[in-house]
């Protein structure tokens, strides 16, 4: 499916963290704009530091998919410890931002095992200066999260971006 939002789990059945549902509107996603997201995730084991995330981001150019490089922490990047990034964004000890707070979704490591669900919630996508190669178009993203060499989760997303 080219153009249009889609997702799938790409890990094997033993991955402890599984995306159960995910919906995003509008489609295509508009920047700046409002994004409505609902999601459900289940985890059969706690996720603790260091949590490594490997992103592969591809953009459609005609019939070709081109892997985008990692530039300024955007694109096909490897983040060696997501926990530290979260701590930098949201200082430990402060409350998690809405709507996470309302729905009891943690924003710091370790993440306990269990089920987490986010009912349809609106997020504002600010008018950020995205590099030209990250604007309008169709994208595919693969995110693999691991800890100490063990894969915890793998999710593939496809979406379209439209910037004003």
From TrEMBL:
| Gene that encodes the chain | Gm2a
Q: Give the UniProt keywords, A-Z.
A: Signal
Q: Where does it sit, as one GO cellular component term?
A: cytoplasmic side of plasma membrane
Record protein name field: Ganglioside GM2 activator
From what organism does this protein derive?
Spheniscus mendiculus (Galapagos penguin)
**GO terms, biological process:** ganglioside catabolic process
- Report a single Gene Ontology molecular function: enzyme activator activity
Q: Which residues form the MD-2-related lipid-recognition domain?
A: 7-159
């Amino acid at each position: 499916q080219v153009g249009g939002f889609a997702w799938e789990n790409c890990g094997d059945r033993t991955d402890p963290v599984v995306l159960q549902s995910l919906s995003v509107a509008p489609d295509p996603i508009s920047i700046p704009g409002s994004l409505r997201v609902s999601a459900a995730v289940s985890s059969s084991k706690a996720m603790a530091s260091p949590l490594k995330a490997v992103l592969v981001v591809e953009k459609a150019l005609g019939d070709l998919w081109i892997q985008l490089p990692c530039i300024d922490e955007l694109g096909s990047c490897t983040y060696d410890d997501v926990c530290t990034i979260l701590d930098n964004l949201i200082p430990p000890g402060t409350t998690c931002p809405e709507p996470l707070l309302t729905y009891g979704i943690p924003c710091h490591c370790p993440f306990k095992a269990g089920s987490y669900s986010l009912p349809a919630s609106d997020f504002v996508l600010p008018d950020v200066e995205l590099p030209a190669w990250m604007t309008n178009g169709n994208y595919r993203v693969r995110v693999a999260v691991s800890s100490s060499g063990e894969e915890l989760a793998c999710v593939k997303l496809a979406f379209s971006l439209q910037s004003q």
